[in-house]
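Q: C-alpha coordinates for this one, please.
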Amino acid sequence: MKKIKFFGSIPAIVTPFKKNGDLDLPALEKFVDFQLSGGIDAIVVAGTTGEATTLSEEEYVAVLKTVVKKVGGKIPVIAGAGSNDTKKAVHYSQLAKKAGADGLLHVTPFYNKPTPNGLVLHFKEIAKSVDLPIILYNVPGRTGSNVSPATIVRIAREVPSVVAVKEASGSINQMMEIINEVQKNGPKDFTVLAGDDYIALPLIAVGGKGCISVVCNETPKLFSDMIHFALAGDMEKAKKLHYMLLDLMNVNFIESNPIPVKTALASMGIIEESLRLPLTFIEDKNRILLKKSLKELKLIK
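A: Here is the predicted structure, written as C-alpha coordinates:
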Protein backbone atom coordinates (compact mmCIF):
# COMPACT_ATOMS: atom_id res chain seq x y z
CA MET A 1 0.00 0.00 0.00
CA LYS A 2 1.25 3.45 -0.91
CA LYS A 3 2.16 5.41 2.24
CA ILE A 4 0.29 8.71 2.43
CA LYS A 5 0.36 11.04 5.42
CA PHE A 6 -2.96 12.86 5.57
CA PHE A 7 -2.56 16.26 7.18
CA GLY A 8 -3.31 19.94 6.88
CA SER A 9 -6.20 21.64 5.17
CA ILE A 10 -8.50 19.11 3.49
CA PRO A 11 -11.81 20.39 2.09
CA ALA A 12 -14.70 17.98 1.84
CA ILE A 13 -15.99 19.54 -1.35
CA VAL A 14 -19.54 20.08 -2.57
CA THR A 15 -20.84 18.42 -5.72
CA PRO A 16 -22.10 21.14 -8.09
CA PHE A 17 -25.44 20.49 -9.77
CA LYS A 18 -27.18 22.38 -12.54
CA LYS A 19 -30.56 23.98 -11.89
CA ASN A 20 -32.26 20.84 -13.22
CA GLY A 21 -30.34 18.66 -10.74
CA ASP A 22 -27.85 17.15 -13.21
CA LEU A 23 -24.14 17.04 -12.43
CA ASP A 24 -22.27 20.21 -13.38
CA LEU A 25 -18.81 18.84 -14.16
CA PRO A 26 -17.43 22.07 -15.71
CA ALA A 27 -18.33 23.88 -12.48
CA LEU A 28 -16.65 21.09 -10.51
CA GLU A 29 -13.44 21.54 -12.50
CA LYS A 30 -13.42 25.29 -11.82
CA PHE A 31 -14.17 24.67 -8.17
CA VAL A 32 -11.22 22.28 -7.83
CA ASP A 33 -8.98 24.99 -9.34
CA PHE A 34 -10.34 27.42 -6.74
CA GLN A 35 -9.44 24.98 -3.96
CA LEU A 36 -5.97 24.24 -5.32
CA SER A 37 -5.23 27.96 -5.55
CA GLY A 38 -5.90 28.19 -1.81
CA GLY A 39 -3.05 25.86 -0.88
CA ILE A 40 -5.02 22.82 0.27
CA ASP A 41 -3.16 19.61 1.19
CA ALA A 42 -5.69 16.99 0.01
CA ILE A 43 -9.30 16.92 -1.17
CA VAL A 44 -12.30 14.79 -0.16
CA VAL A 45 -14.79 13.96 -2.90
CA ALA A 46 -18.28 12.48 -2.48
CA GLY A 47 -18.51 12.79 1.25
CA THR A 48 -21.43 14.17 3.26
CA THR A 49 -20.77 17.68 1.93
CA GLY A 50 -20.72 16.22 -1.59
CA GLU A 51 -24.22 14.75 -1.20
CA ALA A 52 -22.82 11.30 -1.90
CA THR A 53 -25.98 9.51 -0.85
CA THR A 54 -27.88 11.04 -3.79
CA LEU A 55 -25.26 10.24 -6.44
CA SER A 56 -25.83 7.28 -8.71
CA GLU A 57 -22.94 4.86 -9.17
CA GLU A 58 -22.22 6.37 -12.60
CA GLU A 59 -22.27 9.91 -11.19
CA TYR A 60 -19.99 8.89 -8.32
CA VAL A 61 -17.40 7.58 -10.78
CA ALA A 62 -17.77 10.62 -13.04
CA VAL A 63 -17.24 13.06 -10.15
CA LEU A 64 -14.18 11.16 -8.93
CA LYS A 65 -12.60 10.89 -12.36
CA THR A 66 -13.17 14.60 -12.97
CA VAL A 67 -11.45 15.59 -9.72
CA VAL A 68 -8.59 13.10 -10.14
CA LYS A 69 -7.89 14.41 -13.64
CA LYS A 70 -8.08 18.06 -12.56
CA VAL A 71 -5.85 17.55 -9.52
CA GLY A 72 -3.29 15.81 -11.70
CA GLY A 73 -1.40 14.23 -8.82
CA LYS A 74 -0.66 17.53 -7.06
CA ILE A 75 -2.38 16.43 -3.84
CA PRO A 76 -4.09 13.23 -2.64
CA VAL A 77 -7.71 12.69 -3.69
CA ILE A 78 -9.74 11.00 -0.97
CA ALA A 79 -13.01 9.33 -1.96
CA GLY A 80 -15.96 9.02 0.37
CA ALA A 81 -16.96 5.38 0.06
CA GLY A 82 -18.79 4.66 3.30
CA SER A 83 -21.95 2.65 3.74
CA ASN A 84 -23.80 0.78 6.46
CA ASP A 85 -23.69 -2.24 4.14
CA THR A 86 -20.16 -3.68 4.21
CA LYS A 87 -20.52 -5.19 0.73
CA LYS A 88 -21.55 -1.81 -0.67
CA ALA A 89 -18.65 -0.11 1.15
CA VAL A 90 -16.29 -2.63 -0.45
CA HIS A 91 -17.83 -2.10 -3.89
CA TYR A 92 -17.55 1.69 -3.73
CA SER A 93 -13.99 1.42 -2.43
CA GLN A 94 -13.10 -0.65 -5.50
CA LEU A 95 -14.84 1.88 -7.78
CA ALA A 96 -12.86 4.68 -6.12
CA LYS A 97 -9.55 2.87 -6.58
CA LYS A 98 -10.35 2.24 -10.25
CA ALA A 99 -11.26 5.91 -10.73
CA GLY A 100 -7.83 6.96 -9.42
CA ALA A 101 -8.47 7.87 -5.77
CA ASP A 102 -5.43 7.94 -3.48
CA GLY A 103 -7.33 7.23 -0.28
CA LEU A 104 -10.75 6.44 1.17
CA LEU A 105 -12.97 8.09 3.76
CA HIS A 106 -15.26 5.59 5.49
CA VAL A 107 -17.98 6.71 7.83
CA THR A 108 -18.74 4.15 10.53
CA PRO A 109 -21.90 2.21 9.67
CA PHE A 110 -25.04 4.14 10.55
CA TYR A 111 -28.47 2.80 11.60
CA ASN A 112 -27.23 -0.79 12.10
CA LYS A 113 -25.30 0.20 15.27
CA PRO A 114 -22.54 -2.44 14.99
CA THR A 115 -20.61 -3.61 18.04
CA PRO A 116 -16.88 -2.90 18.33
CA ASN A 117 -16.23 -6.40 16.94
CA GLY A 118 -18.52 -5.64 14.00
CA LEU A 119 -16.69 -2.37 13.31
CA VAL A 120 -13.32 -4.11 13.27
CA LEU A 121 -14.61 -6.76 10.87
CA HIS A 122 -16.22 -4.08 8.66
CA PHE A 123 -12.90 -2.27 8.22
CA LYS A 124 -11.01 -5.53 7.78
CA GLU A 125 -13.27 -6.45 4.86
CA ILE A 126 -12.71 -3.07 3.20
CA ALA A 127 -8.94 -3.22 3.71
CA LYS A 128 -8.83 -6.77 2.34
CA SER A 129 -10.67 -5.71 -0.82
CA VAL A 130 -8.68 -2.64 -1.85
CA ASP A 131 -5.10 -1.50 -1.34
CA LEU A 132 -5.67 2.12 -0.31
CA PRO A 133 -5.17 4.02 2.95
CA ILE A 134 -8.40 4.57 4.87
CA ILE A 135 -9.59 7.43 7.06
CA LEU A 136 -12.19 6.29 9.60
CA TYR A 137 -14.96 8.89 10.02
CA ASN A 138 -16.56 9.11 13.45
CA VAL A 139 -19.61 11.41 13.30
CA PRO A 140 -22.18 10.50 15.96
CA GLY A 141 -24.50 13.31 14.85
CA ARG A 142 -24.99 11.51 11.52
CA THR A 143 -24.58 7.86 12.49
CA GLY A 144 -26.42 7.80 15.80
CA SER A 145 -23.55 6.15 17.67
CA ASN A 146 -20.15 7.28 18.90
CA VAL A 147 -17.07 5.11 18.35
CA SER A 148 -15.04 5.08 21.55
CA PRO A 149 -11.33 5.97 21.58
CA ALA A 150 -10.56 2.37 22.59
CA THR A 151 -12.37 1.01 19.54
CA ILE A 152 -10.76 3.53 17.18
CA VAL A 153 -7.29 2.59 18.46
CA ARG A 154 -8.15 -1.10 18.22
CA ILE A 155 -9.18 -0.67 14.57
CA ALA A 156 -5.95 1.25 13.87
CA ARG A 157 -3.90 -1.59 15.36
CA GLU A 158 -5.78 -4.50 13.77
CA VAL A 159 -6.33 -2.87 10.37
CA PRO A 160 -3.07 -1.15 9.30
CA SER A 161 -4.78 0.35 6.24
CA VAL A 162 -6.75 2.60 8.63
CA VAL A 163 -4.18 5.35 8.99
CA ALA A 164 -6.26 8.24 10.34
CA VAL A 165 -9.54 9.23 11.93
CA LYS A 166 -11.76 12.17 11.02
CA GLU A 167 -13.05 12.92 14.50
CA ALA A 168 -16.41 14.73 14.60
CA SER A 169 -17.63 13.64 18.02
CA GLY A 170 -17.23 17.23 19.24
CA SER A 171 -15.27 15.97 22.25
CA ILE A 172 -11.73 17.31 22.44
CA ASN A 173 -11.19 15.00 25.40
CA GLN A 174 -12.01 11.98 23.24
CA MET A 175 -9.57 13.19 20.60
CA MET A 176 -6.85 13.66 23.20
CA GLU A 177 -7.44 10.14 24.48
CA ILE A 178 -6.79 8.76 20.99
CA ILE A 179 -3.66 10.88 20.50
CA ASN A 180 -2.34 10.00 23.95
CA GLU A 181 -2.86 6.26 23.47
CA VAL A 182 -1.26 6.02 20.02
CA GLN A 183 1.68 8.17 21.09
CA LYS A 184 2.31 5.85 24.06
CA ASN A 185 1.52 2.46 22.58
CA GLY A 186 1.10 2.92 18.83
CA PRO A 187 0.52 2.89 16.01
CA LYS A 188 2.55 6.09 16.32
CA ASP A 189 1.91 7.19 12.73
CA PHE A 190 -1.89 7.13 13.23
CA THR A 191 -3.27 10.61 12.56
CA VAL A 192 -6.16 12.44 14.22
CA LEU A 193 -7.91 14.99 12.00
CA ALA A 194 -10.68 17.34 13.09
CA GLY A 195 -14.08 16.68 11.57
CA ASP A 196 -15.45 20.04 12.68
CA ASP A 197 -13.92 23.34 11.58
CA TYR A 198 -14.33 25.09 14.92
CA ILE A 199 -12.28 22.45 16.73
CA ALA A 200 -9.39 22.29 14.24
CA LEU A 201 -7.19 24.86 15.98
CA PRO A 202 -7.58 23.47 19.52
CA LEU A 203 -7.05 19.95 18.20
CA ILE A 204 -3.78 20.89 16.49
CA ALA A 205 -2.67 22.51 19.77
CA VAL A 206 -2.93 19.10 21.47
CA GLY A 207 -1.45 16.98 18.70
CA GLY A 208 -3.96 16.80 15.84
CA LYS A 209 -2.62 17.13 12.31
CA GLY A 210 -5.31 19.03 10.41
CA CYS A 211 -8.96 19.15 9.46
CA ILE A 212 -11.36 17.73 6.89
CA SER A 213 -13.26 20.94 6.44
CA VAL A 214 -16.51 22.50 5.24
CA VAL A 215 -15.57 26.18 5.54
CA CYS A 216 -12.58 25.54 3.27
CA ASN A 217 -15.10 25.31 0.41
CA GLU A 218 -15.76 29.03 0.75
CA THR A 219 -12.38 30.21 2.07
CA PRO A 220 -9.64 27.80 0.95
CA LYS A 221 -6.80 30.31 1.36
CA LEU A 222 -7.82 31.67 4.76
CA PHE A 223 -8.53 28.24 6.21
CA SER A 224 -5.36 26.69 4.77
CA ASP A 225 -3.29 29.56 6.14
CA MET A 226 -4.86 29.05 9.57
CA ILE A 227 -4.06 25.33 9.58
CA HIS A 228 -0.53 25.82 8.28
CA PHE A 229 0.24 28.56 10.85
CA ALA A 230 -1.03 26.27 13.59
CA LEU A 231 1.00 23.27 12.40
CA ALA A 232 4.08 25.50 12.26
CA GLY A 233 3.50 26.60 15.86
CA ASP A 234 2.51 30.19 15.07
CA MET A 235 -0.62 30.13 17.20
CA GLU A 236 -1.10 33.89 17.29
CA LYS A 237 -1.54 34.12 13.52
CA ALA A 238 -3.61 30.94 13.49
CA LYS A 239 -5.85 32.24 16.27
CA LYS A 240 -6.48 35.49 14.41
CA LEU A 241 -7.71 33.58 11.34
CA HIS A 242 -9.68 31.14 13.50
CA TYR A 243 -11.75 33.95 15.00
CA MET A 244 -12.08 35.66 11.63
CA LEU A 245 -13.69 32.47 10.27
CA LEU A 246 -15.56 31.32 13.38
CA ASP A 247 -18.90 32.96 12.57
CA LEU A 248 -18.97 31.42 9.09
CA MET A 249 -17.88 28.05 10.51
CA ASN A 250 -20.93 28.14 12.77
CA VAL A 251 -23.40 29.55 10.22
CA ASN A 252 -22.41 26.75 7.82
CA PHE A 253 -24.30 24.44 10.19
CA ILE A 254 -27.33 26.61 10.84
CA GLU A 255 -29.13 24.05 8.67
CA SER A 256 -28.04 20.57 7.59
CA ASN A 257 -24.72 20.52 5.75
CA PRO A 258 -24.30 21.18 2.80
CA ILE A 259 -27.35 23.47 2.50
CA PRO A 260 -25.63 26.62 3.87
CA VAL A 261 -22.27 26.08 2.16
CA LYS A 262 -23.86 25.48 -1.25
CA THR A 263 -26.02 28.57 -0.72
CA ALA A 264 -22.88 30.55 0.12
CA LEU A 265 -20.99 29.31 -2.94
CA ALA A 266 -23.95 30.22 -5.14
CA SER A 267 -24.00 33.72 -3.60
CA MET A 268 -20.30 33.96 -4.42
CA GLY A 269 -21.06 33.07 -8.06
CA ILE A 270 -19.06 29.82 -7.96
CA ILE A 271 -21.84 27.23 -8.42
CA GLU A 272 -25.56 27.09 -9.06
CA GLU A 273 -27.81 27.01 -6.01
CA SER A 274 -28.99 23.45 -6.49
CA LEU A 275 -29.45 20.59 -4.01
CA ARG A 276 -31.04 17.19 -4.30
CA LEU A 277 -34.01 16.17 -2.20
CA PRO A 278 -34.47 15.52 0.62
CA LEU A 279 -32.24 18.60 1.03
CA THR A 280 -33.82 21.84 -0.08
CA PHE A 281 -33.27 25.61 -0.19
CA ILE A 282 -32.17 27.43 2.94
CA GLU A 283 -34.82 29.27 4.97
CA ASP A 284 -34.99 33.02 4.34
CA LYS A 285 -34.06 33.96 7.93
CA ASN A 286 -30.94 31.80 7.72
CA ARG A 287 -30.02 33.11 4.27
CA ILE A 288 -29.84 36.59 5.82
CA LEU A 289 -27.46 35.38 8.54
CA LEU A 290 -25.32 33.53 6.02
CA LYS A 291 -25.01 36.57 3.74
CA LYS A 292 -24.04 38.71 6.73
CA SER A 293 -21.13 36.37 7.48
CA LEU A 294 -20.06 36.33 3.82
CA LYS A 295 -20.12 40.13 3.65
CA GLU A 296 -18.02 40.44 6.80
CA LEU A 297 -15.36 38.30 5.12
CA LYS A 298 -15.74 40.30 1.89
CA LEU A 299 -16.72 37.13 -0.01
CA ILE A 300 -19.78 38.94 -1.41
CA LYS A 301 -20.74 42.60 -1.67
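A few notes: Residues 8-235 form a domain with the TIM Barrel fold (CATH 3.20.20.70). The chain has one domain: 8-235.
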